[in-house]
Amino acid sequence: MDDISPDFNKKQRLGEKATSPLNPQIVELVRFLNQGLDIYVRVDGAKNEQLVCEYILFTRPSVHQIMQNTDLVTAWRKLGFKEVIFETGYKDTWAYRL
């Protein structure tokens, strides 16, 4: 990936550049994009401990399925996230403590 300073308060999309492949926001974005999901990913919270994923097609079953992926949840914990929030961009939001 090329060097451009990321702004954690803005959404990032496919094709945007990041400072490092170890940047947690980019790691998660790439993980979802590799699965064919066009998900916006951002990091929020005072200490960047919230991973926020926005995808217009999130549903309760799809969020449940993601949270059942123990490898993914473990990876989020290792990256220092304490909470993951799934949003549709409209009225639906699901939050999980990690």
Q: What fraction strand?
A: 15-25%
Radius of gyration of CA atoms, rounded to a whole number: 13 Å
Mean pLDDT score:
78
Question: How many domains comprise the coordinates?
Answer: 1
The beta-strand count equals: 4
Estimated helix fraction: 25-40%
- Annotated CATH topology: Alpha-Beta Plaits
From the spread of the alpha carbons, the general shape counts as globular
Notes on the protein architecture:
With 98 residues, the protein is of the alpha+beta class. It has one domain: Alpha-Beta Plaits (2-Layer Sandwich), CATH 3.30.70. 29% of the residues lie in helices and 20% in strands. The chain contains three helices and four strands. It has a four-stranded mixed sheet with strand order 1-2-3-4, covered by helices on one side. Residues 1-21 have low confidence and may be disordered.
Summarize the structure.
With 98 residues, the chain is of the alpha+beta class.
Characteristic key phrases:
3 helices, 4 strands, globular, Alpha-Beta Plaits, disordered N terminus, alpha+beta, 4-stranded mixed beta sheet, 20% strand, 98 residues
Topology:
Elements: H1 24-34, E1 40-44, E2 50-54, H2 60-67, H3 70-78, E3 83-87, E4 93-97
